[in-house]
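Deadline looming. Please check this record:
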Amino acid sequence: MVRCGVPSVSRETIQSALPHVLSSTHLEAIGARYEGKVRDNYTTQDGRRIIVVTDRISAFDRIIGTLPLKGQLLTTCANWWFEQTRDVAPNHLLSMPDPNVMIVRECRTLPVEMVVRAYLTGSTSTSIWVHYERGERSFCGHKLPNGMRKHERLPKPLLTPSTKAHDGAHDVSASRDQILAATKMNPADFDAAADMAMSLFKRGQQLCADRGLILVDTKYEFGKTPEGDIVVIDEIHTPDSSRFWFADTYEDRFGSGLDPESFDKEYVRRWLASRGFRGDGSIPTLPDEIRVEATYRYVEAIERLMGENFRPHLSAEPEARIRRNLGLE
């Protein structure tokens, strides 16, 4: 498949957005506020949640800074994927009134992240490659063959769930039985979410392959509605939650022992790791050129995935725009 052209948003445009990143919001007038790593959440009285996707970026389970326009990119991408996968698994999305905002159904979050992996790769403490490199041949209850190389395709996609860490703690990859013992969650809920995760990953692989991409691995979060239905929440198949490689260069680069070409958050992870940061200790400051390049790669990823141009909303006061679009001003 022919590689897409240059992303429609230039590095100069991204550079111009640097002074106006959305690092946090204060919209308590619409409901109780809860701050996640990337999202500011507001619970309303009528059973909805207002999710504001900020420009914060996390890596190695730490908030490491901001990327210009990142929140808009993630919201656009998640909205597109939710629409593409409604027939595979129900989700919580109701509407998208602003480039940084999703209005969703309020759900009770299941205490597990459903991670699906198709390749032996990764650099974080929860990654399958880090465990394999240490000599471990069992990962989250799955036996792994000897003699595999980094970035090699696994015999089949594996469900490798992890705990949901809070307040700077690290996620822990675990087997189904270990997750159930640690969380005390209903086994039927776990299994229903696990089945949805595998179906979503299969659909994601198919759509990515049509665009000359490899969906390497991803994570899904699930919640339960007041009626007791399990639905997909948060986001799916974005460059924040997923790893993507270019299909047309993967085999050659793998055969040469090179890292695959990627355009996801791995670019930032590798930069941090090259400076000795893997989640502990002080966080290196991201230079502006790294922030711009990371966003540029996000644009490339999302345009490639959706097959259409990303149209940024450049605003000197993004929170004021959000307030207007939510009817608060």
In short: The chain is about 30% helix and 25% strand.
